[in-house]
Design a protein that fits this description.
- The complex is a heterodimer of chains A (about 700) and B (about 270).
- Chain A has about 700 residues and is α/β, with parallel strands linked by helices.
- In chain A, the strands form 4 sheets. An 8-stranded mixed β-barrel of chain A has the order 13-14-16-17-18-19-20-21, surrounded by 4 helices.
- Chain A folds into 4 domains: about 120 residues, Globin-like (Orthogonal Bundle); about 100 residues, PAS domain (Beta-Lactamase); about 170 residues, Reverse transcriptase/Diguanylate cyclase domain (Alpha-Beta Plaits, 2-Layer Sandwich), CATH 3.30.70; about 250 residues, Alpha-Beta Barrel (TIM Barrel), CATH 3.20.20.
- Helices cover about 50% and strands about 20% of the residues of chain A.
- The relative contact order of chain A is 0.04.
- With about 270 residues, chain B is α/β, with parallel strands linked by helices.
- In chain B, about 40% of the residues lie in helices and about 15% in strands.
- A 7-stranded mixed β-sheet of chain B has the order 3-2-1-4-5-7-6.
- Chain B starts with 17 loop residues before the first helix and ends with a strand.
- The chains are: A alpha/beta (about 700), B alpha/beta (about 270).
- At the A-B interface, helix 5 of A face helix 3 and helix 5 of B.
- Chain A: It holds the Pfam family GGDEF.
- Chain A: This is Diguanylate cyclase/phosphodiesterase with PAS/PAC sensor(S).
- Chain B: InterPro entries: SAM-dependent_MTases_sf, SAM_dep_MeTrfase_SAV2177_type.
- Chain B: GO terms for molecular function: DNA binding.
């Protein structure tokens, strides 16, 4: 069956005009993103659907439903939009879209109303659906977002868990009351218990060695007055051992800022602490004897002097072994070290009382500190105990060694004393004991202190003295025995000390040798002596044969790598022939030198420099060894010539000297004798064949300008 | 202890979200009662908001079309909110089928909804990010995948900068983004302002207060302050104007007076 639509006679552009009116009313009430033009085009299409439905032969209002839905799709969703949409239809649809001649007014009104009902129904249904689906979509989105965040939180929680579980740091979380809530494995392992110590309270972890501030800090944290603290703290492990930790406790607050939890982090520092203690021990103890060392001694002494009240006193025994150098030199360092260990063991019990400490502060120097001694004599008593302890010989290997010591005893109020002063006084006093023959103690006495010059003081001032030209040289003539003519002179260095006057080489050469200052000092002496020898030559002193100058060479200089170079340079600079210089090396130093160490001397000898073996007879040298030494002169020690001072001379001494001279001559060594003091002596030695001599009998050491008088 | 960056932010559905409130203004139902309470209070204080919002959407559409006309087919929309109808990618891909759009929002619900809407739509992406952290946005995997930094990009900051207070350094954030853009890129910007239209100072203050109650800030800025966002950009004709006056499609007289609130503009990076 086909339905023919009756022909309506309508105004031209009726649909468009209707849509324009509709759009004007509806557009302001929409949220559409269309432009007004696009929106009007949409409404033209919707108008056409309504017009067709309106004019159909048999009326069906259902297209109105689709128009209502279309309006919602076009975002005319506001209630106001529906009112406006229906208002325009009610007022203008029939007018522009139906011919009253075809569609009667009553039928037209009825159809128009029914279309409006259908539009409203379609609108309502579409809006309901849309609202539902949007709400659904939003809920899904919210759920999705929550799930994603829950997953992310879970992952983050997992990561944090892993950090907590696998951390090398021990971590515990406790409530603000201190009850442990959770711990990680490292924590349990450190605390040394098989099961984590749950149900335990942080506040129970006291230890006798806790620093007092730990628990103050902890209380402040629990009251919320402190966010965190860090301390070094010991814990008792369940096995009874002690765990030293670097402890950090942090306060965790809730969202309102109230204290809720404590985060406890412990780092095991037991080993580090042990290492520190060991290092501290090593830094404060002598490796050889295990006694406290110099720095610990000074630390204790400073403490005693600083902490002392006006009543407190301090006592000190400064002990130095007599002749220890000889032991070292003759028996070697290994024996010397054994001896020092044995001495330390003997001395240790002498200074083990309260307030007493024994330290080794130098090679063979020991010091016993006595804090707050009851009497002066109790310190002297300590010194006597020390001497008694050393009275019996010490067995080192298969040797029995006699040990003798000199002790300086100081006792006094701590007030106004510095550690340096105390030690200097003890040092001076010790030297007094040594000067009095050794193997004894001496009590410090301010008067002798003032006169004495401490080694420390001299050592301290040596460098400045060298810079400040406080040294000068005296020359002691060497006389040819054959005719009594002047052969040369030995250069002897002196120190013109601003406070202590002129000091002989025995006072400072060992110190310079010890500190190494001997090298620059020795070079200065050499330069000066060579320059002087040149002057004598220029002025013609000594006749046709040029005078020779003898300069002493210390063991350390002997080992100095630039000895040959320096010596040659000095000679060349001054223009002195090498034969006018003789270097004196002690027998002890020379026989201890190996072939490498002798090489420089050999080189110098080959250049023509004379080499004298000084103090011959004190070094117990194997006479057969003389052959291998680069010396061309032998200086006989004064101890051999002392017996010749008497008249008649000691026959044994005569024989010895005779033997040495004959041996020396056999080895093509000339012989010089020292310490010639009398004419008898001089005559004897001349008869025995000695080549040259020096001593007070001829001339004392003096300034270079006095040398000509000796001729 | 500072929270690590990889630990997620929480989600709280009991506080209103500016993007869901915005959806309500547009007549949508992507909102919860908590959002509607805030929106109703704002509408009570200032009934014209929906018209402004609508005009703002229309501006965005005109600006996107303009960008495509200029040959710019990459879009970075920061503060994209809940996608409803007439979104950037719809408009852009209608004009240029190969257009690429990266949406960025800091609201996890808006991001989840966007992801659902965009699933299966080629050339689009959504990123959880914040205008306050532009470096993170630029360095994101999504940005690297979708946007070619050597080609011009249209940066859309539509109705988002007024949620940043001065302390949050909005001008610096925009400058950071600008520096990452290729020459020829566009800045499409709209901002709430009391300078234009029928809105009163009292209404601005009241609405800002209502937003603050909901945990958000709303900062009205004067035209001179808005102009500073365009430093390094050459303003495109007609410059900074009320929303409805930026290259309108039809007769200006037809527009609702509310459409002349706010400040919008487009600038081109030299």
């Amino acid at each position: 069956m086909t339905e023919t639509v009756p022909t309506h006679h309508l105004p031209p552009d009726g649909l468009r005009r209707f849509a324009t009116i509709w759009c004007r009313a509806l557009y302001p009430a929409t949220a559409t993103s269309m432009t007004k033009r696009e929106f009007e085009d949409l409404l033209v299409a919707l108008s056409e659907r309504l017009a067709i439905a309106l004019r159909a032969r048999s009326f069906d209002p259902s297209p109105g439903v689709s128009v209502g839905e279309a309006l919602v799709t076009a975002h005319c969703t506001a209630p106001e939009a529906l009112t406006r949409a229906l208002g325009v239809i009610d007022a203008y649809l029939l007018l522009y879209c139906a011919d009253p001649a075809v569609l009667g007014p009553d039928e037209g009104r009825s159809r128009c109303a029914k279309l409006q009902h259908a539009i409203a129904a379609g609108f309502a249904r579409a809006l309901q659906e849309r609202t539902r689906s949007e709400q659904e979509a939003l809920s899904v989105a919210a759920l999705t977002a929550q799930t994603e965040i829950a997953n992310a939180l879970h992952e983050s929680e997992t990561r944090f868990r892993a950090v907590f579980r696998d951390a090398a740091l021990g971590i515990a979380i406790a409530g603000i009351d201190g009850e442990i809530i959770d711990t990680n494995e490292s924590f349990a392992r450190m605390m040394g218990s098989a099961s984590p110590p749950r149900r335990r309270n942080v506040l129970d972890w006291t230890h006798p060695d806790d620093s007092p501030e730990v628990w103050r800090l902890q209380r402040e944290l629990m009251r919320g007055e402190r966010e965190h603290y860090q301390v070094e703290k010991p814990y008792s492990r369940s096995d009874g051992t002690v765990l030293w930790t670097n402890l950090t406790v942090s306060l965790l607050r809730d969202a309102e800022g109230e204290p809720r939890y404590m985060l406890v982090m412990v780092e095991d520092v037991s080993e580090r602490r042990l290492l520190n203690l060991r290092l501290r021990y090593q830094a404060t103890h002598d490796a050889l004897t295990d006694l406290p060392n110099r720095s610990m001694f000074f630390e204790r002494l400073e403490q005693a002097l600083a902490a002392g009240s006006s009543q407190s006193r301090v006592g000190l025994c400064y002990l130095d072994l007599d002749g220890f150098k000889a032991v070292n030199d003759s028996l070697g360092h290994a024996v010397g070290d054994q001896l020092l260990i044995a001495v330390a063991e003997r001395l240790q019990p002498c200074a083990s009382g309260p307030g007493q400490m024994l330290a080794r502060i130098g090679g063979d120097e020991f010091v016993a500190l006595f804090v707050d001694p009851p009497t002066v004599d109790s310190v002297a008593e300590l010194a006597r105990r020390a001497l008694d302890a050393l009275a019996t010989p010490v067995t080192v290997g298969d040797r029995e060694l006699m040990v003798r010591a000199s002790i300086g005893v100081v006792e006094g109020p701590t007030r106004n004393l510095t550690s340096a002063e105390v030690l200097r006084s003890a040092d001076i006093t010790m030297y007094r004991a040594k000067a009095e023959g050794g193997n004894r103690y001496a009590l410090a006495d301010p008067d002798s202190d003032a006169r004495a010059i401490s080694r420390h003081h001299l050592t301290h001032h040596l460098p400045a003295a060298l810079k400040g030209c406080e040294f000068f040289i005296e020359y002691q003539p060497l006389v040819r025995m054959e005719d009594g003519s002047l052969e040369g002179a030995e250069a002897l260095v002196r120190w013109s000390h601003p406070r202590h006057g002129v000091l002989g080489p025995d006072r400072f050469i060992p110190l310079a040798e010890h500190t190494g200052l001997i090298v620059p000092l020795g070079r200065w002496v050499l330069q000066e002596a060579v320059r002087q020898a040149c002057q004598w030559q220029v002025r013609g002193i000594g006749g046709p044969r040029p005078l020779r100058v003898n300069v002493n060479l210390s063991p350390r200089q002997l080992h100095h790598p630039e000895l040959v170079e320096d010596t040659v340079a000095v000679l060349e600079e001054a223009g002195l022939p090498p034969s006018a210089l003789c270097l004196e090396v002690t027998e002890t130093a020379m026989i201890r030198a190996d072939e490498n160490e002798l090489r420089p001397l050999r080189e110098l000898a080959e250049l023509g420099v004379g080499i004298a073996l000084d103090d011959f007879g004190t070094g117990y040298s194997n006479l057969a060894n003389l052959r291998r030494l680069p010396a061309n002169t032998l200086k006989l020690d004064r101890s051999f010539t002392q017996g010749l001072q008497r008249d008649p001379a000691d026959p044994v001494d005569l024989k010895i000297v005779e033997g040495i001279v004959s041996l020396a001559h056999a080895l093509r060594l000339s012989v010089t004798v020292e310490g010639v003091e009398t004419s008898t002596q001089a005559e004897q030695l001349r008869e025995l064949g000695c080549d040259s001599a020096q001593g007070w009998f001829y001339a004392r050491p003096g300034p270079p300008e006095r040398l000509p008088e000796a001729v | 202890m500072e929270r690590p960056t990889w630990a997620p932010q929480g989600i709280d559905l009991s506080v209103p979200s500016v993007s869901r409130v915005y959806d309500y203004y547009l007549g949508g139902s992507h909102n919860f009662e908590v959002d509607r309470i805030t929106a109703r209070r704002a509408l009570e204080a200032f009934p014209g908001i929906p018209k402004i919002v609508q005009a703002n959407r229309a501006f965005m559409r005109r600006a996107v079309r303009y960008a495509v006309e200029c040959g710019v087919t990459q879009f970075l929309d920061i503060g994209s909110g809940i996608p409803t109808f007439g979104s950037v990618h719809e408009v852009a891909r209608q004009a240029a089928p190969d257009a690429r759009v990266l949406y960025v929002d800091n609201d996890p619900v808006a991001v989840a909804h966007s992801r659902a809407v965009l699933s299966g739509v080629p050339g689009t992406g959504i990123l959880t990010g914040d205008l306050r952290e532009p470096e993170a946005v630029l360095a994101s995997r999504e940005a690297r995948e979708l946007l070619d930094p050597s080609r011009p990009t249209a940066l859309l900051l539509v109705a988002v900068l007024h949620f940043l207070e001065d302390e949050e350094k909005p001008h610096e954030r925009v400058a950071t983004l600008r520096d990452a853009l290729a020459p020829g890129s566009l800045l499409v910007l709209s901002h709430a302002s009391g300078d234009n239209g029928p809105v009163t100072v009292e209404q601005c203050g009241r609405v800002a207060e209502i937003y603050r109650d909901g945990g958000s800030r709303l900062v009205m800025r004067a035209e001179s302050e808005v102009a500073r966002f365009f430093e390094g950009f050459e303003p495109v004709d007609p410059g900074l104007v009320p929303i409805g006056r930026w290259r309108p499609d039809g007769q200006i007289e037809d527009e609702d007076p509310m459409a002349f609130s706010g400040i919008v503009g487009v600038g081109r990076k030299a």
